[in-house]
Amino acid sequence: MVKLSVNINKIATLRNARGGNIPDLVKMALSIENFGADGITVHPRPDERHIRYQDVRDLKQVLQKDFNIEGYPSEEFMQLIEEVQPTQVTLVPDKPDALTSNAGWDTKENEALLSDVVARLKKVARVSIFVNPEPAMIEGAKQCGADRIELYTEAYAKMYLEDKAEAIAPFILAAKTAEENALGVNAGHDLSYYNLNFFNKKIPNLLEVSIGHALICDALEFGLRDTMNIYRRCLHRSKKYINEHCLLTEEDDSEDLG
After folding, report:
1. Fewer Cβ within 10 Å of end Cβ, the chain: N or C?
2. Is 43 assigned a catalytic role?
C-alpha cells in the first residue's frame, strides 16, 4: 500500500510570516498524522525561511509515524540527521537560495559526493536520492548506495492535462529501472488530487508519495480533515469513486481505473 507523507513546509511559512507560533507546527503535524497521513516530510533550508532546524528536533520528539527529512547534504544538515535519526532522509541537489526543488541529482557527476554522504547517513536512516525519471540517473543512485529514489514529478504534473500517456511514460520506465536495481520508489513535486490517482495506478512498485504545496492549498478550501481523506482515497480508490465523492470534475478523468 502506497504511503502518503505530508510536507508541512507551507505551514511553517505561514507561521513565520507573522512571527510567534500560529499556526503551531507541531500541533498541525500531529493533526495531519491523526487524519491519516503515513508520515511527515520537512525540508529545512539554511535560511530557515520555513522549517527551522529546531522544528525538526521538536517534531522528532512527538511524531508517531514516519519522519522524512529532505535537504542538501551540507555538514550542518548531515549533523542534524545524525542527531535526529529520522525514518528517512531524502537528498536533494538544491542550492541554498533555491525557491523549491527544481531538478534531480546528476548521480553520475556527483557519484563521489553522494557515495560518501549515503554511506554516512545509512548508519542512522533510510536514504533516498531525488532524481529525474532517467534510467542512467537511477542506475547511478544504485551505485551511490541509496535505498530508494524519489522521482521528481513536476514534468508529469505539467503534461498530465495535455497527454496523460505521454506524461506518465518516462516515470513507468524509471520505476521499472529502479525495480531492476533493487531500489524502492518514492515520488513527489506538484502531485495533487487531480493527477495522483492516475500516477499511483500506473507506476509499479510505488512505495511513497510526498505532497505538500497542493495538499495545504486544498486544505484552505476543503478543510484539513476532508483534504486528507481526498488524498488518501486517491491512493486507495478508483478514479470513478474519487470523481463521485471527492470533488473532482474533469470529464476526461471519469474513467474507473480501479
Report:
1. N
2. yes
d(CA 126, CA 110): 19
Which one from 50, 134, 150, 189 is the annotated catalytic residue?
Answer: 189
Q: Is 166 an annotated catalytic residue?
A: no
CA separation for the pair 74, 50 (Å, rounded): 18
CATH code for 3-253?
Answer: 3.20.20.70
117-173, pLDDT tens digit by residue? 999 999 999 999 999 999 999 999 999 999 999 999 999 999 999 999 999 999 999
Find cell 533555491 and name the residue.
98
Determine the Cα–Cα distance for residues 136 and 221; give it in Å rounded to an integer. Answer: 41
Residue 255 annotated among the catalytic residues of the structure: no
Active-site pick, 33, 50, 70, 134? 70
Catalytic residue among 43, 50, 150, 208: 43
Rounded to whole angstroms, the Cα distance separating 149 from 2 reads 15
Q: How far apart are CA 170 and CA 158, in angstroms?
A: 14
- Residue 175 · residue 182 · CB < 8 Å: no
Helices and strands counted in the chain (H then E): 12, 8
Whether the Cβ atoms of residue 208 and residue 231 lie closer than 8 Å to each other = no
Cell of 35: 487524519
Cell of 16: 513565520
8 Å CB contact between 98 and 47: no
Strand 126-131 and strand 88-91: the pairing is parallel
Torsion angle defined by CA atoms of residues 189, 206, 108 and 105, in that order, rounded to the nearest 10 degrees: 10
